[in-house]
């Protein structure tokens, strides 16, 4: 069932790969050559082309669907204008971060993503330590994203049931069992194999675009419209903070969450044809497409709110404000349920993409012996599928879904954990890239160039021209730091145990434990990505 495990060896210094002249120059060979230059043996099947990986990236981002969910805290705190402008700021910042990720993905398209890049560009004296910490944070981010994806998919479904049957009152154990069901569906699709998954993602891209019009058209056609001032200039301060600006930034991370996760394509790099070009293009196309669709949805939604107070109060019974807004807009419970059903289907599809990326990230870190039980998690099936990592990701979600049995589980806390873990890895990567840029650490790209040359790195075929690249890099560092800082704040000035932002505790615990474990034990065996060739 499983391929024989391979013997891995560590080479202290990166070296170039001598290639046999008889190698056929085609896309597959070029991908394998590039991967060998990174020190990794090609083990996964390259089933994804541009359209299928674009579908996976758009589905994982799930921005126009996600903004309907993640805008709830910002809407209740700062009002409609806070949601609108927070999204605009978040979109611009995320484009900048994604462009930096795209440059690195072109230079080093590997499933490890952020932690592999850190190993390449960090100072040698601290490269192993920083690599280990970033790997843990990225793994945490994607596992948290998997849990959050299952949770939101589940609560959307339960919200639809409440909308159609107001007498129904969801219990905590209903949420938990439904989470298990949605998780199992996402995992079963992932276990069908890479080729089936690739075709599925191509179909989801079509549904992603068609569903957008299925929501926006009836929403703006049937609903009475608010004046532009309501959408763009109406701010509230419902969090008890000292200023409106502070309230805006406290709610900002939850809106920005609808735009994160573009690096899902990065963690699928070793299953993508022509990865050095396709991955960065998929990253940029996905953030532009999703951002444009999400902005249209959020503006349409804000124009269509007939009763803001009722929409905010609907969170207590239906989980999400958009369900009440749909019902008020089309003046039909059946119509609102059908519209919400589109969101549910696409959210479920997003879970499939998220679990695919989360499992590949886990598999990659296990390949470098960074996780407990790595020898089992790294194994592949005969079809080159990381089944153990997929099942481990499933087990983590099932176990941690028990937290919904607690009296109150705040969606904003789950979203904040994803933001903190993911953007901490982005921040370190962006800062190191900026340092390398300023010190001349990267060499220009030339076709057929070695990845390593006299201790220097070369850019890949996709790169922003200078000075745009450096300016963008600075913006990416600033935005990542800004979002990371505000992701730890509670929603109200006087938090209770139910409203406290517990993400800071989970994030801090994982960060502290990874550092302590590295000092006590991991520094003896973890030297960064293991060279297999």
What does this structure look like?
This protein has helices at residues 27-37, 50-61, 63-78, 80-107, 114-121, 127-164, 172-191, 194-222, 228-232, 244-256, 264-267, 275-303, 308-313, 315-318, 321-330, 333-367, 374-377, 387-400, 411-438, 468-486, 503-520, and strands at 442-443, 452-453, 456-458. The chain has 533 residues and is mostly helical. It has a single domain, classed as Amino acid/polyamine transporter I, CATH 1.20.1740. A three-stranded mixed β-sheet has the order 1-3-2, with no helix packed on it. Helix 6 packs antiparallel against helix 19 and helix 19 crosses helix 21. The longest helix is centred in the N-terminal third of the chain and has 38 residues, at 127-164. The radius of gyration is 23 Å and the shape is globular.
Question: Which tags fit this structure?
Answer:
66% helix, three-stranded mixed beta sheet, 533 residues, Amino acid/polyamine transporter I, globular
Note the beta-strand portion.
under 5%
The general outline is: globular
CATH 4th-level superfamily: Amino acid/polyamine transporter I
What value does the Rg take, in angstroms? 23 Å
Annotated CATH topology: Amino acid/polyamine transporter I
- Average pLDDT confidence is 86
State the strand order across the main sheet. 1-3-2
| Annotated CATH architecture | Up-down Bundle
Q: Secondary-structure element order, as H and E?
A: HHHHHHHHHHHHHHHHHHHEEEHH
State the end-to-end distance. 25 Å
Say how many strands there are. 3
The CATH class, by name, is: Mainly Alpha
* Largest sheet properties: 3 strands, mixed
Secondary structural class:
mainly alpha
Continuous helix count = 21
Name the poorly predicted regions.
1-25
Helix content class = 55-70%
């Amino acid at each position: 069932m499983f391929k024989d495990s391979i013997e891995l060896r560590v080479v202290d210094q990166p070296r170039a790969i001598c290639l046999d002249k008889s190698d056929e120059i085609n896309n597959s060979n070029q991908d394998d050559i590039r991967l060998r230059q990174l020190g990794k043996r090609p083990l996964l099947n390259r089933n994804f082309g541009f359209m299928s990986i674009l579908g996976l990236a758009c589905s994982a981002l799930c921005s126009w669907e996600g903004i309907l969910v993640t805008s709830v805290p910002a809407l209740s705190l700062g009002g409609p204008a806070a949601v609108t402008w927070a999204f605009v700021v978040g979109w611009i910042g995320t484009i900048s971060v994604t462009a930096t990720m795209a440059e690195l993905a072109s230079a080093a398209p590997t499933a490890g993503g952020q932690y592999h890049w850190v190993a390449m560009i960090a100072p040698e004296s601290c490269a192993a330590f920083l690599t280990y910490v970033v790997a843990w944070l990225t793994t945490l981010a994607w596992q948290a994203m998997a849990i959050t994806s299952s949770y939101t998919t589940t609560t959307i479904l339960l919200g639809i049931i409440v909308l159609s049957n107001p007498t129904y009152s969801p219990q905590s154990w209903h949420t938990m069992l439904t989470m298990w069901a949605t998780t199992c569906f996402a995992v079963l699709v992932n276990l069908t194999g890479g080729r089936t998954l690739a075709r599925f993602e191509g179909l989801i891209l079509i549904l992603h675009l068609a569903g957008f019009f299925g929501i926006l058209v009836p929403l703006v056609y049937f609903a009475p419209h608010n004046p532009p001032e309501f959408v763009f200039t109406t701010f509230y301060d419902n969090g008890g903070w000292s200023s409106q600006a502070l309230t805006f930034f406290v709610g900002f991370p939850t809106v920005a969450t609808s735009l994160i996760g573009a690096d899902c394509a990065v963690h699928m790099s070793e299953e993508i044809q022509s990865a050095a070009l396709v991955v960065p293009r998929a990253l940029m196309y996905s953030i532009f497409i999703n951002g444009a669709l999400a902005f249209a949805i959020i503006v349409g939604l804000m124009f269509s709110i007939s009763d803001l107070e009722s929409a905010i109060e609907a969170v207590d019974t239906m989980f999400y404000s958009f369900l009440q807004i749909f019902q008020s807009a089309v003046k039909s419970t059946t119509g609102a349920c059908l519209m919400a059903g589109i969101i549910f289907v696409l959210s479920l599809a997003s879970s499939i993409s998220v679990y695919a990326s989360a499992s590949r990230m886990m598999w990659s870190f296990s390949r470098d012996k960074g996780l407990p039980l790595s020898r089992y998690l790294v194994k592949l099936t005969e079809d080159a599928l990381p089944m153990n990592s997929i099942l481990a990701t499933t087990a983590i979600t099932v176990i941690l879904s028990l937290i919904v049995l607690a009296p109150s589980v705040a969606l904003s806390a789950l979203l904040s954990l994803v933001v903190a873990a993911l953007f901490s890895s982005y921040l370190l990567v962006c800062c190191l890239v900026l340092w390398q840029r300023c010190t001349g650490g990267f060499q220009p790209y030339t076709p057929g160039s070695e990845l390593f040359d006299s201790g220097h790195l070369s850019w890949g075929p996709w790169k922003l021209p200078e000075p745009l690249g450096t300016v963008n890099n600075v913006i990416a560092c600033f935005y990542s730091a800004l979002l990371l800082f505000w992701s730890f704040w509670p929603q109200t000035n006087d938090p209770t145990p139910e409203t406290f932002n517990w993400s800071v505790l989970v994030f801090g615990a994982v960060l502290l434990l990874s550092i302590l474990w590295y000092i006590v034990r991991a520094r003896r065996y973890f030297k960064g990505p293991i060279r297999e060739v």
